[in-house]
Specification:
Strand order of the largest sheet: 1-8-2-5
Number of helices: 34
Distance between the termini: 134 Å
Mean pLDDT: 76
Number of domains: 5
Helix content: 40-55%
Number of strands: 12
Strand content: 5-15%
Radius of gyration: 37 Å
Largest sheet: 4 strands, parallel
Length: 835
């Protein structure tokens, strides 16, 4: 006896109904929709340390970027079927196309994306398939619902177009025999497993480079996430011909005449049984035959509802299905279990077979007694955690409102829509921002699953698990911040681990600014957030080595060995290698950096590398890293920079001068931080030569004078003389403004305390003609706009209190009557002559 249970993937109502149905049916064998070559992994489901949500990960060992996920949650019917098998010693197998075939199929061959649930929802008067399914199935679990669901899907499949198999795979006569031999239900589209087309997901939700189709989630390198299409059945619909374009054309021509009369989903897309769906169902029937031939008497088949009509009834002869599957492409595939998250099950993340509310569905499945009251209690806890006032009275009133809304709408139990409206009105006061907190943290949620430590995996992943356990770094989906004190051994090792992962492209940790203010180098702050897609990146990084240290060393050396790697990039790589404590790579990087610097004649490249090298010289004090070899490299760079910089600062336009000024600032800060007398002397001497030249752009000349003043290499009188020369009549207004911008450089306090400097600049501004003032105004606005608001107010106050001239006491002038009479007579004579 065989029973087919057509379910909705990730539906708690389907999961509970399936569990009841299995208890009643008591099967001796169970088939679950999933990659058939994952059968050896079913045994891990029984492990105590296997905690959903989890996913089957399949990848091509020689090309790990080509991967697929099959996710499962606690409330997934397939997971409950596997748990039933583990608890009752019933063998469980997967029956869908093997992952080796899924990974070999080209993405372009997928069929159109349709949603049969949308069609049923529209027929019931619902404008949202999710709301219809929640009202009819999820809120009222019933083990007898499977027959009704299968019947409804069969009705939809009867009118859906059915393409003939591609000629390259199966002839037209074979196709006719296949239709005749198969049960009538085979000629109908798969319902809970309708064809999936890959669609591009929102890049802000995920960070990243993985594609997923309900169960297969395909991963391609350097692409945005692409996920499957449909809540009822998330498998990717992929044709199996040698030429995917030919397959698509065959499907299109075979279904064009029937498309106008075919049933449509809620988006208006016609429901079609594509070629890939037919092959998947053929494979399912073949596995069913194998299990029955192996002695099973009571076989339970758990599949997407869209597929159920194709599997019920007599299976018929196997030859047509064998011909349909003949010639399918295959590749080498490795499979394992990996942790997953609820947010990756959400439809909003781009996951095609996802649900909009995985957190709510998990609650419905796990909390059977007073689920609404318990849910609203959790909501109150979330709001209180954000310092929002929510009392027990709010919970009571929200429960009452939810129940009232459900009664008014004729629902046996308040669903998510009723509960959400109650939360919005009673607890949030209509504030959508507060409601968004509830949706993100509860309705969707960030629960991260776990897998047993002995799960098959690449050695690199095993090393990461072991190191994380030793260092007490838990993989969590929610972002959290940690402060590392690099004076402590464990925190130093944590820093090394996170830096190594970043080098391998696994961004578990992101450096950030901590709340604890500290200017020393012994503290690091990281934001940690684990993403399921990192599992694929770990597999990709495994080509570099079996441990995090060796893999990071191999990758960074490989990057550095490329001929087009710049000196600055090599310096950055060396800095990262020291941060990650990659002793096996530092010698090679230093050698490569010395060779590249010797051949690079561009001073800007050398300037760009110097700050990073100088920063690394400080790590020896904090991390215990031997940086003696770096001092030799840094000194060599400085010699070349000091020799070439005075000649490189001439003949520059404004953009180039400003870019070079920024590099000079960074190099000056780095050299000052190093605090080496010889290095500082050489650098300041170079700045002196630049300041003495009259053919240097004002942005650089003014900055050189400013830096020399700060270092006390020139006094105030000398700087005043240089300022007067820069503002002399021989220079254009734009050149004068550039010099002032370079000299002041965002340091407004200089004008506050140096009244003579303020007077000189104020006099220059007063003497500018209107056209000259307008021409220099943009640069002047940028110069003074970079000052802090308090500095600008202080400058204005200084001008109001004392004027532009310095406040100096003057002695009273004595009156000389004799000289006054002479002046009056002279003035009278002049006026008389004029009259």
């Amino acid at each position: 006896m065989t029973r087919v249970f057509g379910i909705r993937h990730h539906g708690p109502g389907s999961a509970r109904s399936l569990r009841h149905a299995l208890e009643e049916f008591r099967p001796d064998a169970i088939l679950v929709e999933g990659p058939a070559d994952a059968d050896p992994l079913v045994g891990f489901v029984a492990a105590d340390t296997m905690v959903p949500p989890v996913a089957l990960l399949a990848y091509v060992p020689d090309s790990p970027a080509r991967a697929a996920f099959w996710p499962f949650a606690t409330f997934s019917p397939e997971w409950q079927a596997m748990r039933y098998g583990a608890e009752h010693a019933v063998p469980v197998r997967f029956c869908d196309l093997p992952a080796a075939t899924v990974l070999a199929v080209d993405d372009e061959s997928r069929g159109d994306r349709t949603d049969p649930l949308g069609t049923l929802a529209a027929a019931a008067g619902y404008d949202d398939a999710e709301r219809w399914w929640d009202a009819v199935v999820e809120s009222v679990p019933d083990s007898t619902a499977f027959d009704a669901i299968t019947e409804a899907m069969a009705a939809l499949r009867e009118d859906a177009p059915h393409p003939s198999p591609t000629p390259a795979r199966v002839s037209s006569s074979d196709s006719a025999r296949s239709r005749a031999a198969a049960p009538d239900s085979m000629a109908q589209p798969n319902a809970a497993g309708k064809p999936n087309d890959a669609t591009s997901a929102d890049p802000s939700s995920r960070p990243n480079d993985t594609t997923s189709v309900d169960h297969p989630a395909r991963h391609e390198p350097d692409t945005q996430p692409v996920w499957g299409a449909h809540p009822a059945d998330p498998r990717p619909s992929t044709a199996t011909t040698a030429d995917p374009h030919e397959a698509n054309e065959t499907v299109r021509s075979a279904t064009e005449s029937d498309a106008s009369s075919a049933p449509r989903d809620d988006t208006g897309t016609a429901l079609v049984v594509d070629e890939h769906t037919l092959r998947r169902e053929a494979h399912m029937r073949q596995v069913m035959r194998q299990v029955l031939k192996g002695g099973a008497k009571r076989l339970a088949v758990v599949c997407g509802a869209w597929h159920a009509p194709a599997l019920v009834g007599p299976l018929g002869p196997a030859a047509p299905d064998a011909r349909l599957l003949k010639g399918l492409p295959k590749t080498k595939a490795a499979l394992t279990w990996v942790p997953w998250t609820h947010s990756r099950l959400a439809a909003g993340s781009g996951y095609g077979a996802g649900v909009t509310s995985p957190g709510w569905y998990h609650h419905l499945f796990t909390e059977t007694a007073r689920p609404v009251a318990r849910w609203l209690t959790k909501v109150a806890g979330v709001l209180r955690a954000h310092d929002l006032p929510v009392s027990s009275a709010h919970i009571i009133e929200a429960v009452r409102l939810s129940d009232t809304l459900a009664a008014l709408r004729g629902r046996p139990l308040a669903g998510l829509s009723e509960v959400t409206e109650a939360v919005r009105s009673v607890m949030c006061g209509g504030d959508e921002t507060m409601l968004r907190l509830v949706i993100d943290e509860l309705v969707v949620g960030e629960t991260l699953g776990a897998v047993p430590s002995d799960t098959p995996t690449v050695p690199l992943a095993a090393d990461l698990r072991a190191r994380s356990k030793t260092l007490r770094l838990e993989q969590k989906a929610l972002a959290r911040t940690i402060d590392l004190d690099l004076r402590k051994e464990r925190d130093v090792e944590r820093s090394h681990l996170l830096h190594r992962l970043r080098l391998l492209g696994i961004g578990w940790g992101t450096p950030t600014t901590g709340e604890v203010r500290n200017t020393g180098t012994f503290r690091e702050t990281w934001t940690l957030r684990w993403e399921p897609e990192f599992e694929v990146r770990i597999v990709e990084a495994a080509v570099w080595g079996t441990t995090l240290r060796t893999a990071a060393e191999a990758k960074i050396l490989d990057t550095a060995s490329r001929e087009d790697t710049s000196v600055a990039a090599l310096a950055d790589a060396l800095e990262l290698a020291l941060l990650a404590d990659l002793g096996g790579a530092t010698d090679g990087l230093i050698t490569r950096l010395e060779a590249a610097a010797a051949l690079d004649h561009d001073v800007t490249h050398l300037l760009g590398a110097l700050p990073g090298l100088t920063r690394t010289l400080r790590y020896g004090d904090v991390r215990g890293t031997d940086t003696k070899a770096l001092a030799h490299v840094a000194d060599g760079l400085l010699v070349r920079i000091c020799a070439g910089l005075p000649g490189a600062v001439t003949g520059l336009d404004t953009d180039a001068a400003e870019a070079l000024r920024a590099q000079i600032d960074a190099a000056h800060t780095a050299i000052s931080t190093r605090d080496d007398e010889h290095t500082s002397t050489e650098w300041l001497a170079t700045l002196q030569r630049i300041a003495d030249r009259d053919d240097v752009h004002g942005a650089i000349g003014g900055r050189a004078v400013r830096l020399l003043c700060d270092a006390e290499r020139i006094d105030d009188a000398d700087s005043a003389r240089r300022l007067a020369a820069a503002l002399s009549i021989g220079n254009t207004p734009a050149a004068k403004a550039a010099w002032i911008d370079g000299f002041l450089g965002g340091r407004g306090l200089l004008l506050v305390h140096d009244r003579e400097l303020l007077r000189r600049i104020d006099d220059w501004l007063r003497d500018l003609a209107e056209d000259q003032f307008v021409a220099t105004l943009p640069l002047l606005r940028r110069t003074f706009g970079s000052f802090e608001s308090g500095e600008r107010r202080a400058i204005g106050q200084a001008l109001r209190d004392t004027g532009s001239a310095p406040a100096t006491p003057t002695a009273p002038t004595a009156v000389d009557p004799t000289r006054g009479q002479l002046a009056l007579r002279a003035a009278t004579a002049i006026l008389g002559a004029a009259g």
